[in-house]
């Protein structure tokens, strides 16, 4: 009796979350993400999971994984379905709540105008029934579907988005990879400073309050009479070692005929050309030069310095307009319509190489293009599982459309000697249910921050044309 009374008082403190199908299909591990609170799965959610389980898409895989996890939980204590199955053991103490499955027929009592045949409305009826029955504790619907949440609130029910996959609440707080030093920086941090030269670079060892906030591979700069552009090479507590950069804005340091047009592009080229940096992420609006800089750096390191054996370029195939149906041809040919950005940038790079006097005339340009073609492989994301890329330069374009799980699948393909570069603009997400806070690109920028073999830059200034810049501002 005491145990029952204790369980009742605990239940009063905890919340009951009713899960919509799209939450399970978005993150199958969500069953273990609600800590001490209880989870309720309506029969309709299980039905929808069942109807989505066939196929090879990410959604189908997640549906199957969610079903397997539920099977594991239920088979651990099948007799406790009515009273709720404790999640402590199956989740290895990540969650301490209980999992409830719908075991009774619930009357579909909804306002007259709401059609009960729709799956979403049947789940709402379950939430309504539980809220009435368990009035002593909050019953909350968790759904990634905005319309479902609006309907729930219109009926006086509590509803929330699934927040657990969000890396940041506010994307303005996302790490930019760049820090401007205050005017009095050297006065406050110059005491006991050491400086030395090595391989044509200058190094400074400093300590002070601002140094403690810096991150390894973060760029710091100071404009003025004696401008400083440097990279945080090492950090131990309040002490940092700053290393000056190669000036890629100067023609003598051009990369495949390309020079940096602004400060951030110079920082990006320092990361892209650095063999010690295995993972680079570049964020920025359209026209900031993400793809052009990356291709220039990759071609230089594949064809000139022979650091990598080939370039592999991939992107998620989410159409902005209507889909154009099935495409004929090989994997490369099918991916060609998605790779317009690659073609446009190669035209620019070929033009640059010719102007620089690398190759002679029309024949030279055609020969260069054929050589480049043999070294760039275009791959579809769908065939990435199980691959290992050794000594490759892997470019993931439009990375904002990837989920954190897809991003993990891609980056873990990297074998020895491979460099991975993620490009994207989190303001242009085309994938349903992904937001700026839960995009795979936001996730990797946040998780890789401070690792000594990774770097990130948010490119600020558009360099495409005055028309594109003005359109970006006013439209």
Average predicted local confidence, pLDDT: 82
CATH homology superfamily name of the largest domain: P-loop containing nucleotide triphosphate hydrolases
> Strand sequence of the main sheet, in spatial order?
3-4-2-1-5-6
User: Sheet with the most strands?
Assistant: 6 strands, mixed
Radius of gyration: 27 Å
Kindly provide the name of the CATH class of the largest domain: Alpha Beta
When the domains are counted, the total is 3
How helical, in percent, are the residues?
Answer: 25-40%
The separation of the N and C termini measures 67 Å
CATH architecture of the largest domain: 3-Layer(aba) Sandwich
In what range is the share of β-strand residues? 15-25%
Structural class: alpha/beta
Shape: globular
Helix tally? Answer: 15
Beta-strand segment tally: 18
CATH topology of the largest domain: Rossmann fold
The unreliable regions are 1-9, 319-324
Protein name: PhoH-like ATPase
Family: In the N-terminal section; belongs to the PINc/VapC protein family.
GO molecular function, one term: ATP binding
Organism: Niveibacterium umoris
Q: Would you give an account of this structure?
A:
By secondary structure, the protein is an alpha/beta fold. The chain folds into three domains: 152 residues, Rossmann fold (3-Layer(aba) Sandwich); 74 residues, no CATH class; 218 residues, Rossmann fold (3-Layer(aba) Sandwich), CATH 3.40.50.300. It has a six-stranded mixed β-sheet with strand order 3-4-2-1-5-6, sandwiched between helices. Helix 13 packs across helix 14. The radius of gyration is 27 Å and the shape is globular. InterPro entries: P-loop_NTPase, PhoH, PhoH2-like, PIN-like_dom_sf, PIN_dom. One of its GO terms (molecular function) is ATP binding. One of its GO terms (cellular component) is cytosol.
């Amino acid at each position: 009796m005491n145990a029952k009374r204790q369980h009742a008082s605990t239940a009063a403190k905890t919340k009951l979350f009713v899960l919509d199908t799209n939450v399970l299909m978005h993150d199958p591990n969500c069953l273990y993400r609600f800590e001490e609170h209880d989870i309720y799965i309506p029969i309709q959610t299980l039905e929808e999971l069942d109807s989505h389980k066939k196929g090879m898409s990410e959604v189908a895989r997640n549906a199957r994984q969610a079903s397997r996890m539920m099977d594991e939980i239920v088979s651990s204590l099948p007799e406790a379905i009515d009273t709720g199955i404790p999640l402590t053991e199956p989740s290895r103490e990540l969650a301490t709540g209980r999992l409830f499955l719908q075991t009774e027929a619930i009357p579909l009592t909804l306002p007259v105008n709401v059609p009960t045949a729709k799956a979403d409305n049947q789940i709402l009826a379950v939430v309504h029934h539980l809220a009435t029955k368990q009035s002593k504790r909050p019953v909350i619907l968790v759904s990634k579907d905005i319309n479902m949440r609006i309907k729930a609130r219109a009926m006086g029910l509590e509803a929330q988005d699934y927040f657990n996959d969000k890396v940041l609440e506010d994307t303005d707080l996302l790490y930019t990879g760049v820090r401007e030093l205050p005017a009095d920086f050297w006065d406050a941090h110059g005491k006991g400073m050491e400086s030395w030269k090595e391989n044509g670079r200058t190094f400074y060892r400093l300590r002070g309050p601002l140094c403690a906030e810096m991150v390894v591979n973060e760029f710091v700069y100071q404009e003025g009479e004696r401008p400083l552009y440097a990279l945080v090479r090492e950090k131990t507590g309040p002490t940092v070692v700053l290393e000056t950069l190669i000036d890629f804005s100067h023609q003598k340091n051009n990369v495949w005929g390309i020079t940096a047009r602004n400060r951030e592009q110079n920082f990006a080229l320092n990361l892209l050309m650095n063999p010690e940096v295995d993972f680079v992420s570049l964020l920025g609006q359209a026209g900031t030069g993400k793809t052009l800089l990356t291709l220039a750096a990759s071609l230089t390191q594949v064809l000139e310095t022979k650091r990598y054996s080939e370039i592999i370029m991939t992107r998620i195939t989410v159409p902005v307009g209507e889909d154009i149906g099935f495409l004929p041809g090989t994997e490369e040919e099918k991916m060609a319509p998605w790779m317009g950005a690659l073609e446009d940038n190669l035209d620019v790079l070929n033009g640059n190489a010719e102007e620089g006097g690398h190759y002679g005339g029309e024949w030279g340009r055609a020969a260069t293009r054929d050589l480049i073609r043999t070294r760039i492989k275009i791959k579809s994301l769908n065939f990435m599982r199980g691959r290992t890329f050794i000594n490759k330069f892997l470019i993931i374009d439009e990375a904002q459309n990837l989920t954190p799980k897809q991003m993990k699948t891609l980056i873990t393909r990297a074998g020895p000697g491979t460099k991975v570069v993620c490009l994207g603009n989190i303001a242009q997400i085309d994938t349903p249910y992904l937001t700026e806070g839960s995009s795979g690109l936001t996730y990797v920028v946040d998780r890789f921050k401070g690792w000594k073999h990774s770097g990130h830059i948010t490119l600020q200034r558009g360099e495409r044309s005055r028309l594109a810049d003005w359109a970006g501002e006013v439209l």
